[in-house]
Amino acid sequence: MVEPFVAKSLTGWGRIAPRVCHVYRPEKPRLIENILRDLSQPHFIARGLGRSYGDTAVNEGGGVIDFARLNRMMRFDPATGVLECEAGVTLAEIIETFLPRGFFLPVTPGTKFVTVGGAIANDVHGKNHHRDGTFGQFVLDFGLYTPEGHLLLCSPEDNPDLFWATVGGIGLTGVILTARIRLQPVRSAYIVADYHKSRDLDDALATFEASDARYQYSVAWVDCLARGAMLGRCILMRGNHADPAQLPGSLAAKPFDVRPRRDKRVPVDCPAFLLNPLNVRVFNNLFYGMHRSVEGQIIDYDRYFYPLDQIHDWNRLYGRRGFVQYQATLPTESAKGLVALLERLSTERRGSFLGVLKRFGDAGPGLLSHPMKGYTLTLDIPNRTGLVPFLRELDRILLDHGGRLYLAKDAVAAPETVAVMYPDLDRFREIKGRVDPENRLSSSMARRLGIVGV
Ligand SMILES: Cc1cc2nc3c(=O)[nH]c(=O)nc-3n(C[C@H](O)[C@H](O)[C@H](O)COP(=O)(O)OP(=O)(O)OC[C@H]3O[C@@H](n4cnc5c(N)ncnc54)[C@H](O)[C@@H]3O)c2cc1C
Fold first, then answer.
1. Closest residue CA from atom 4 of ligand 1
2. Ligand 1 contact via 251 beta carbon (within 6 Å)
3. Ligand 1 midpoint to CA 51 (Å)
4. What pLDDT score was predicted for residue 1?
5. N or C: lower Cβ tally within 10 Å for the chain?
6. Cα 121 to ligand 1 centre (Å)
7. Whether residue 176 has its Cβ less than 6 Å from ligand 1
8. Is the pTM of this model over 0.90?
9. What's the gap in Å between 115 CA and the centre of ligand 1?
10. pLDDT of residue 219
């Protein structure tokens, strides 16, 4: 039977370039077979919660398989922390179910509104990459449905090529139906956090280098409009999971209870003038000014890992034209490239609210996985006139310093740029060609970047 679909205008989280796609919402994994056979669509791509910023889960004129209803948890082994679930299960659902039992995600991005399938397909990283690596490194195996109609079990031992092409493979090698992931045991829902106010970029990098080994989690909020001697000033927030003995009495008695947050919502698209450079500079100054260097703060996991999730639809703050999130990673030896990026941004006055700076550990085996040893800087850039030429300039700086962009965030990069940044792209294409010779899996991003022919 042919599955029904709805024509819908979709974007990524940055809300630029809406595209009409044909959205399927299967309720059972076996329906995916019928969907992929539907020849009325030229191609398909899977979609989780659409938290990638650009067009990786958008498929103009083709099919999009929405995983929202494929969100069952099948098995959990408390002895090993291994959870088996469908790919549409969200990180929020995993936390809600397993944190009260003493388990947390092994790696989490800065939002919990992400599916397991999306986390694998972008091989997401968190504030613990310097220690623990990416999400894919905690995936024991997954069931991958290929467009040729095969359900393959993939793991680092079974079909390893396909496993590491799919981890970070932006949905192009097959549809992940289920996965087994290893959660980490924790003894409370709290983090002991140390805050350090860095006066400039050199101070921030030196602090990361000197002390990162003491912290499982480490991140900095950067004032990306600061200039001159203050260029790159930031607030480092580093932390470890708290032991109940470190919690004050009331919390120690119930270490997994967290006071619920009162979440807010941005109800409308904000007018563009609100984001003028003056307002943003005032906000960043206030943020920097209100923090001080302090150690041993107890903060619950939700406020530590997911501050932005408190404001639903916060992407509407950037108005109707949306924004891009530019995530640039530079190898450790080229960390000075960060200065060039920040200088360009503050001179052009295009930066927005705080940027994020993290230190990455070694690269993993995912062919298109983003992280590599070095520093990663993430910036929100509003969509104003001249955006693309400006981003091309930033790309040039990145290329000159041996850096790379993160595909989960990208919306406009040129194919030749990405080909240089991801040297395993040809190997990836070769593996994709084996399991999907007709290119039934494609996306607006895959065609824009020439990963798949038009
Ligand atoms: C506020 C915020 C903070 C963020 N912080 C971070 C961060 O710290 N680190 C980080 O790495 N990322 C971060 N991200 C990006 C986000 O984690 C990734 O883009 C993530 O992949 C989104 O998951 P999703 O479920 O929304 O998937 P989508 O965005 O819908 O899709 C992402 C990719 O996964 C593929 N996909 C989805 N489901 C399947 C499936 N079942 N089978 C095969 N392919 C599938 C899609 O085709 C697409 O290529 C952040 C995003 C936001 C909005």
1. 110
2. no
3. 5
4. 67
5. N
6. 7
7. yes
8. yes
9. 7
10. 97
State the residue range of the domain holding 309: 190-259+267-416
Regarding whether 287 and 143 lie in a shared domain, the answer is no
Do 254 and 124 lie in a common domain?
Answer: no
Cβ of 13 less than 6 Å from ligand 1: yes
- How many Å lie between the centroid of ligand 1 and the Cα of residue 122? 6
Q: Is residue 31 one of the residues assigned to a domain?
A: no
Q: From the CB of 408, is ligand 1 less than 6 Å away? A: yes
Rounded Cα gap, residues 378 and 365, in angstroms: 23
Q: Is 52 in the pocket of ligand 1 (CB under 6 A)?
A: yes
Contact 267, 198 (CB under 8 A): no
pLDDT mean for each 10 residues of the chain (454 residues) = 89 96 96 94 98 98 98 98 98 98 98 98 98 98 96 98 98 98 98 96 95 96 88 94 95 93 80 70 74 92 93 87 95 93 86 85 98 96 92 97 98 97 98 97 98 88
Question: If you measure from the C-alpha of residue 243 to the centroid of ligand 1, how many angstroms do you get, rounded to a whole number?
Answer: 31
How many domains, the chain? Answer: 2
> Which residue among 153, 186, 219 closes a domain?
186
Hunting for tokens 């240089």 — which residue is that? 420
Ligand 1 pocket test, candidate residues 8, 124, 368, most atoms within 8 A of CB = 124
Instruction: From the CA of 121, give the closest atom in ligand 1.
Output: 34
113 C-alpha to center of ligand 1: Å? 9
Here the tokens at position 407 are: 């595909």
Ligand 1 centroid–CA 285 distance in Å is 31
Q: Residue with the nearest Cα to atom 18 of ligand 1?
A: 52
* Amino acid letter for position 221: W
Predicted confidence at residue 347, as pLDDT, reads: 85
- How far apart are the two ends of the chain, measured CA to CA in Å? 28
In a domain, 245, yes or no: yes
